[in-house]
Amino acid sequence: MAHQGTRGPDLPDRPDGPDRLGKPFAARPLRRPDGPRAVAGVVLLLPPGKEESDRAPSSAAAYVAMRALGRRLARAGERHGLATHLVRYRLGGWNGEDAALAEDAGLAADEAVRRYGDVPVCLVGVDMGGRAALRAAGHPAVRSVVALAPWLPPDGGHGAAAGPEPVKQLASRQVLVVHGTDDARCAPERSFRLAERIKKTNREVCRFEVHTDGHALRAYRWEVHTLAADFALGTLVGAPMPRAVRDALAAPPPLGLRMPLASGFGRLREG
How far apart are CA 41 and CA 263, in angstroms? Predict the structure, then answer.
């Protein structure tokens, strides 16, 4: 039975089975005068998680953490027929080799295809959700990945046998990484080194640095959310990419992987 409450119309219901998705975020219902609008693409939001946890996470806490980003993506994608969903994890932790959060991301992509048909998917993850988005990118429906302040393990992972984070699953995917230079929780140099490795076999990767911002990217939240929305629209429905993204994709390393995110990015278009 769907959870009943008063925490907002787009708060996702808790699943009663394998379903990883709740109701989509929406600025307004995806409706035309002659009926529902066809969904052209799906954005799956992957909230933060823990390194180790066998407890079920709070759906309400995940919703609060991702609400601003979810609503920004919903508004940006409204006229393009994009559906934006918050993924609900079974457990709150990555849990070593289980990579539980990445597995849930793959299950959510499966559910998106069951609901909407053969549509492209963009995975947008924050913190440990960013690692899950990068790891789950090999799902056949996934076209692009956005990793915001991604949590990544030290080189070598959990022990020397673990090896570095895999990148083969990112072949032919379009990848955007955004990281604050003052992030004290998730080392920005780790995401830079991972982006360098991806770039060796995939030209469609770029990375933006938000100077003097911390892990939560609060100081430049508007710019970060606008960049994520622009990238999702560009990769899913062919909307024009901002010049900053085009320049970052075209620039050789390290320039395209240390692209500064300008203050006020996207505000002129909104005005």
Answer: 29
